[in-house]
Design a protein that fits this description.
The structure holds two protein chains of two kinds. Chain A has two domains: about 5-40 and about 165-365, no CATH class; about 50-145, D-Maltodextrin-Binding Protein, domain 2, CATH 3.40.190. Chain A contains 14 helices and five strands. Chain A has helices at about 5-15, 20-40, 60-70, 85-90, 105-110, 125-145, 170-200, 205-210, 215-245, 250-275, 280-295, 310-315, 320-335, 335-365; strands at about 50-55, 75, 95-100, 115-120, 155-165. In chain B, α7 runs antiparallel to α10 (about 210-235) and α7 (about 165-185) runs antiparallel to α12 (about 275-290). Chain B is an alpha/beta fold. Chain B has two domains: about 1-45 and about 160-360, no CATH class; about 50-140, 3-Layer(aba) Sandwich (abc type-2 transporter like fold), CATH 3.40.1710.10. Classes of the chains: A alpha/beta, B alpha/beta.
Chain lengths: ~375, ~375
């Protein structure tokens, strides 16, 4: 490596790390974020406020209600608040209301025409489905027990086993994805801003008139951010593994290779975006334009498989999608060869295209 | 007081010129939310279909084929044949399948002799959100349903068809506008410091609170127009019902936008440097409003401490207002808590930005 380039990289690192707030943002905040989201987030629906409407002597309904509360998924709604079931939900007092048939469930079961109604607040689609499956399981169990019937023996029995995360721990599933999101902010956005700042301040013209080649300028502006991104990675990874107990089943070397491919792609994309921006305000909005869809298509918030095929192709252009997939695959499953190779290559290809494109943009715009 | 409005107005006018001079920012502020809502409104779907299922049929009989036909025709699963259980696991590892079903060689003979036919189902646990639905669908297809002793009927209020779009689009609007608002103002004051125009502005008789108000107003108008666009798209393109009071929604939008714009200004005042401001905006805007505002991950399921923490997030309150006014038709009385919280946060942000700004001036 030549001396100009080394000097360039040193200058850039010093300039970035000189600011104490920047050091905090780069090395402390990601760890806080990972901890925050790792502990707080969960797909499981809990603490559902349940009201059960029935007359006092209805023993089976009483049992269903008590069981629901004891299950830990539900919280009881205070009986003073009871009124019209629909209004209970609309007014935000309850999330679900179970209504006994007129005359009581106990008697209706004796007659053999028990009709229960379950009102659910379906503003949140995911919650509504979860609430329904909880309630129907509890209702079934209680009624069968009350009628002293054994659970029906199905002719086919399914023995299910959950692989890779048998206890379905949320942190194990969330942390790799959060790690990826935290990393893209410190790499892509930083690079983009750093280059646009020089443009805005006019120091970029100075660089060009200096006796350095355009390649040196570009490498000098990007390599420091690859270094920063990679020095960040072991730190965040350490928190994921040692604090959250995310298993590390694959090879650490492969994981670092994946991280390196991702950081290079993110930095290259940041560079490419910077060639289209004139000032930092534009850089900010451009970062939003790219970052937001990346998070959406990353596979954390929404399952990609459910999207229409034409749109799934957009997800394949999302570095975050590949990286989250790689992290989960390598850490939880030990890394399937075909999968790891495909996605690392995809990241590499994206990095290459962005670098070539940025070179051409730089040449024409300068 | 008249002087106050004059001076704040002058700052606002200057900011308007600044916005108009840069058509890119203007187009981004108005176009991005609409674009994003259209893209994600079309693409997001929670109800799963064609889940790739690796099947190893070691039985190869009429019963096993009939069972697999049921899987294939259910629409939930896309069946992929594999030759051994090991290959099924390999498909899971390589993420070509979400679950693997193994039919043992004695499946039919067990059924004929009146015993239970055994199936083995292996589910990929690396994505928590799919485990529940996959095992539910399998049980439904195999037919381990409830006996007809009673009838439990669920009624989905406010979204009877469980349409994912009705749930996602109002929430998406909140998330997008939160991030955009912070980003719009996060650089404004830092930029003036970096360019040196802040010294100029300070030598005029404009007071800090007037600068803050003057900088907020134009972006507030821009944000309200953007939300109006998104509202029209949601109603006209995606046919999402709006049963609430438009004025309540509008008031909520305004409070919410001003709060986030003020948060952006606070960041700008604190950072004084556009690069730091940008990182701060991303950290406080992008991830929290996506992840802990109740957009997808339910707040009620969080540990108590984090539930309290989310109360500091304006997006959490407006999420409730947006969803409830759209689908439930809630009014100010039902939404008094979110509105009070949002008003409080709004004034707190403006107050903090002004105070911090003042303190910066007096060394």
């Amino acid at each position: 490596m030549n001396r100009t380039l080394l000097g360039f990289i040193r200058k850039e690192l010093i300039q970035t790390l000189r600011d104490k707030r920047m050091r905090v943002l780069l090395f402390v905040v990601p760890v806080i974020q990972l901890t925050l989201f790792g502990v707080a987030l969960s797909n499981e629906v809990k603490n559902i406020r349940l009201a059960s409407v029935y007359s006092p002597g209805d023993a089976v309904m009483q049992k269903i209600h008590d069981r629901s509360i004891a299950s830990g998924w539900f919280l009881p709604v205070s009986r003073q608040a009871y009124g019209d079931p629909f209004e209970l939900i609309r007014g935000g007092t309850a999330d679900a209301v179970l209504v006994a048939p007129p005359g009581g469930l106990t008697r209706a079961l004796g007659r053999g025409d028990a009709k229960l109604q379950l009102l659910l607040n379906a503003t949140n689609v995911i919650e509504a489905q979860a609430m329904e499956s909880y309630v129907s399981a509890i209702v079934q169990r209680t009624i069968l027990e009350d009628l002293r019937l054994d659970p029906p023996e199905p002719s086919i029995q399914v023995n299910s086993r959950v692989l890779f995360n048998p206890s379905l721990e949320t942190a194990i599933f969330m942390v790799p994805a959060t790690l990826a999101m935290v990393m893209i902010i410190t790499t892509m956005v930083m690079t983009n801003n750093a280059i646009v700042r020089e443009k805005e301040m006019g120091t970029f013209e100075m660089l060009i008139s200096a006796p350095v080649s355009p390649a040196e300028v570009i490498y000098g502006k990007t390599i420091p951010y690859v270094i920063l991104g990679m020095s960040n990675f072991p730190l965040i990874l350490g928190v994921a593994v040692f604090v959250f107990g995310v298993p590390m089943r694959g090879s650490v070397l492969v994981l670092f290779l994946a991280a390196f491919a991702f950081v290079c792609t993110a930095v290259a994309l940041g560079t490419l975006i910077s060639t289209f921006c004139k000032n930092q305000q534009q850089a900010t909005l451009a970062a939003f334009l790219f970052l937001f869809p990346m998070i959406m298509f990353g596979g954390l918030l929404f399952p990609i498989e459910n999207m229409p095929v034409s749109i799934r192709w957009v997800a394949y252009l999302d570095p975050l999608y590949h990286y989250i997939g790689l992290l989960r695959n390598i850490m939880l499953k030990g890394g399937g060869h075909a999968f790891v190779v495909t996605h690392i290559l995809a990241l590499g290809l994206m990095a290459l295209v962005s670098v070539v494109w940025s070179f051409r943009r730089f040449r024409t715009t300068l | 007081m008249r002087l106050f409005w004059n001076r704040a107005g002058a700052v606002a006018r200057k900011e308007v010129f600044h916005i108009l001079r840069d058509p890119f920012a203007l187009a981004a502020a108005l176009g991005l939310p609409v674009l994003m809502v259209i893209i994600f409104g079309v693409s997001i779907e929670f109800n799963m279909k064609d889940i790739p299922l690796a099947v190893n049929d070691a039985d190869q009989t009429r019963s096993s084929r009939m069972l697999l036909d049921r899987f294939a025709s259910s629409g939930y699963f896309g069946v992929r044949r594999v030759v051994s259980p090991q290959q099924g696991i390999a498909e899971l590892t390589d993420q070509k399948a979400r679950a693997a079903l193994v039919i043992p060689p004695d499946f039919e003979s067990e059924l004929i002799s009146g015993r239970q036919g055994q199936l083995q189902l292996l589910i990929d646990g690396s994505d928590n959100s799919t485990v529940g639905p996959v095992s539910n669908y399998v049980n439904r297809i195999v037919g381990a349903g409830a006996p007809a002793l009673y009838d439990l009927r669920a009624r989905y209020l406010f979204n009877p068809e469980l349409d994912s779009r009705w749930f996602v689009i109002p929430g998406l609007t909140v998330v997008i506008m939160a991030i955009l608002s912070i980003l719009l103002t996060a650089l404004t004051i830092a930029r003036e410091w970096e360019n040196g125009s802040m010294e100029l502005l300070l030598s005029t008789p404009v007071r800090p609170v007037e600068i803050i108000v003057g900088k907020l107003a134009p972006y507030g108008v821009l944000g309200v127009i953007a939300i109006a666009f998104v509202y029209v798209i949601a109603r006209a393109v995606f046919q999402i019902p709006f049963v609430g009071n438009l004025a309540v929604f509008g008031l909520g939008s305004l409070l919410f936008l001003v709060t986030y714009l003020a948060q952006g200004l606070l960041i700008s005042v604190v950072a004084r440097n556009q690069q730091v401001a940008m990182q701060l905006a991303m950290v406080t805007g992008m991830l929290p409003s996506n992840l802990i505002s109740g957009f997808i991950f339910p707040i009620e399921s969080m540990p108590a401490f984090f539930q309290y923490l989310t109360m500091l997030l304006p997006a959490r309150w407006f999420m409730r207002i947006a969803r409830d006014t759209f689908l439930q038709g809630s009014g100010l009385i039902e939404l008094k808590v979110p509105f009070l919280a949002l008003t409080f946060l709004c004034f707190a942000m403006i107050f903090l930005a002004t105070r911090k700004f003042k303190r910066d001036l007096e060394p």
